[in-house]
Amino acid sequence: MMEGPKDEKTHVRCRTIIEVLGKPKEHVEETIRKYTGQITKDENLVLLNMKISEPQQHDDLWSAFAELELVIKGIGNVIGFCFDYMPSSIEILKPEEFVMKAQTIQDFVNDLQARLHSVDMAVKKQKNENDFLRRNLSKAVSNIVLVALSKNKLDMEHLSKITGIHSEELDIFLKDMIKGNKIKEEGGLYSIA
What we know:
The longest helix has 48 residues. The radius of gyration is 27 Å and the shape is elongated. It folds into two domains: 91 residues, Alpha-Beta Plaits, CATH 3.30.70; 55 residues, Arc Repressor Mutant, subunit A (Orthogonal Bundle). The strands form two sheets. Strands 1, 2, 3, 4 and 5 form a five-stranded antiparallel sheet that branches. The chain has a three-stranded antiparallel sheet with strand order 6-8-7. It is built from five helices and eight strands. The chain is an alpha+beta fold.
């Protein structure tokens, strides 16, 4: 992280919460333990206290959290901690005030901007990949339906079995295909338009 005058490298005592959400329960337990284990090995901090909750079920997902009390070596490393470990909250216990030069704040802001641009690029790349997969999945389902209907008229139940898609979800594809004049539906039977 960044170097600066003595005041800017003051150690920061804080309390933070790290949360994990997922399933099954065992995965959540293992993940929170691995994640907190990774934090304890970070050379930029000293762990003072850690409490890990028992996983709690919320609908079909499990959640667990760890409350950590830490001393982090310098405000720059506090910012790095937040980016690296994504805590759900952080409370600064000591010091109550910070004195920093404009250059240090400028460096923090520029580092923040670089990280945000990196995250933005990753999100855009993921969105493009998702859009590509969505379009190709739609085309694949459409082709399977057209091949299945090329021989016989079929009802939703049979199309669902052939495609492997539950009828509620398949209905969305079929409605789009009807709008696109690729297929038609009469009396619960689908056929090529």
